[in-house]
Amino acid sequence: MYKETKASAKPGHFITIILFLVIIITYQGFPQVSKNVNHAFHNTFVFGLDGGITLPQTDYEKSKMGYSVRLYGEYFFKTNSIHLVGLKLKIGSEEVTGEDSRSTVSTQDGTREIPPVFKTSVFSAGLSIHIGRIYKSLV
């Protein structure tokens, strides 16, 4: 009537467990030796200058290219690992210009007079954190 089944352990499971334990013990017995890493920028200041163009998107008929200049200074903290951390301070200036032949434009608030040419300077400053990692052979 009822067929009785026995729970039998397969020999493959036993071998897998033994192999797994041997690998864990082997890796625990031979830990990796830490190496001092000397990154070129650690514990130093780095200064830079960026330049470019500004392409404005405005309501004026003609948008003209302007300039963009950014100065930055960065300090990288001393480290003996493959990771690198630094702080960066950036300051910059951009110029946005445009021309329009219309003297008035319609808005939701009514008609408004606009100058035929505009030129606006934008100044910015910021602080950022730099986090890096070395991807080279540590021989």
Explain what the structure shows.
The chain has one domain (35-133). 14% of the residues lie in helices and 48% in strands. It is built from one helix and seven strands. Strands 1, 2, 3, 4 and 7 form a five-stranded antiparallel β-sheet that branches. The longest helix has 19 residues, at 11-29.
Tell me the structural class. mainly beta
Domain module tally: 1
Determine the number of helices (DSSP H or I, runs of at least 4 residues).
1
- Characterize the largest beta sheet: strand count, sense, and whether it forms a barrel: 5 strands, antiparallel
Distance between the termini: 71 Å
- Total strand segments: 7
Q: Proportion of β residues?
A: over 45%
Low-confidence stretches: none
Shape: elongated
* Global Rg: 33 Å
Approximately how much helix is present in the residues?
A: 10-25%
What is the string of SSEs from the N terminus onward? HEEEEEEE
Mean pLDDT: 81
List the helices and strands and how they pair.
Elements lengths: L10 H19 L14 E11 L7 E3 L1 E11 L6 E17 L4 E4 L2 E4 L3 E17 L6
Antiparallel strand pairs: 1-3, 2-4, 3-4, 4-7, 5-6
Summarize the entry for a quick read:
By secondary structure, the protein is mainly β. It contains 1 helix and 7 strands.
